[in-house]
Amino acid sequence: MNPLTLVLIVFAVTCAFCWIASLITKDTSWVDRLWSVVPAVYVWIFAISGTAAAEDAGRLTLMAVLVTAWAVRLTFNFARRGGYTGMEDYRWAILRARMKPWQFQLFNLFFIVLYQNALLVLITLPALVAWQDPTPLNGWDGVFAVLFVAFLIGEFTADQEQWNFHEAKKRRAGDLGPGFLTSGLFRFSRHPNYFFEQAQWWTFYAIGATAAVSAGNGLWGGVINWTIIGPVLLTLLFIGSTIFTESISASKYPAYADYRRSTSMLIPWPPKQRQGEPHLV
Question: What string of DSSP letters covers 52-84?
């Protein structure tokens, strides 16, 4: 069976499960619980298919290993935050309260279930390019693999900083000013974990593009090929989600407006001076 066909079958089954489970449990976070799992499944489908065809599957195996490392980190972080204990994402509850029941059910089906699951397929399709162009590994694969691991470590660090902050906040009964994290990586980006997450998938795309270039494609169809739609849509999703999340934070914490003015939203960057901070000479 063509691996893309198998991926689409898994996608359809996943969508059906998430939608039916959300109707039965009144909980719309089933896609969140599978978010860290299905991309690894998709990439391994391509990797196993390439290996079974007795092709040079070194690049596909590398891609599968990298995405598995991504999946393990994200699953661990999601699990320790209680994501698998039936806790629904607080943002869905807020949106449900703002919509009529039928409107939210349409949003649930078309955006939460279908669109987000389709996006998880799209971000893994650079593996399809590598499957179609089974050329040997080269130096660029090594460069992008190192970058992927660096971004993975960056995201793990940001998640750990955030975990430590919220644990300290719990110990102080929620009284830990200014109410949100502004130190460590969060001094340079309001959402460094989001930045590193997106950077990993852009790097994953670059590995697929390396396969296309190695097969003789140039700028168009090689460096820039149709699978770029995956990381582009992922970035747009994160930007939209970040804007919505920050609107909630700004309504809860008066100091958040100043943090927003002084600190980059995603890309880590030296912060501007905040109100009340002394000038450094």
Answer: HTTS--HHHHHHHHHHHHHHHHHHHHHHHTTTT
Distance separating alpha carbons of residues 242 and 101, to the nearest angstrom: 24
Specify the residue for token string 């978010």: 35
Separation CA 264–CA 186 (nearest Å) = 9
Contact 211, 133 (CB under 8 A): yes
Task: Specify the pLDDT at position 279.
Answer: 38
DSSP 17-34: HHHHHHHHHS---HHHHH
**DSSP structural state of residue 100:** -
Number of Cα atoms under 13 Å in the Cβ half of residue 110: 6
Q: Tell me how far apart the 2 most distant CA atoms of the chain are, in Å.
A: 67
**Helix (H/G/I), strand (E/B), else coil: 176:** coil
Stretches where the chain sits below pLDDT 70 are 274-281
Query: Computed over its alpha carbons, how large is the radius of gyration of the chain?
Result: 21
Those residues with Cβ within 8 angstroms of residue 235's Cβ, 6 or more apart along the chain or in another chain: 198
By C-alpha distance, which of 133, 121, 125 is closest to 222? 133
User: How far, in whole angstroms, is CA 188 from its chain's centroid?
Assistant: 20
Please give the pLDDT value at position 83. 87
Q: Does the reported pTM lie above 0.85?
A: yes
What was the pLDDT predicted at 176? 79
* CB-count exposure of residue 123 (10 Å: 0-12, 13-18, 19+): buried
φ, ψ at 220 (rounded to 5°)? -90, 125
Judge contact between 133 and 214, C-beta under 8 A. Answer: yes
Residue 182 token pair: 């502004």
CA pair distance 154, 160, nearest whole angstrom? 10
What is the amino acid identity at position 204? F
C-alpha angle 98/102/107, rounded to 5°?
70
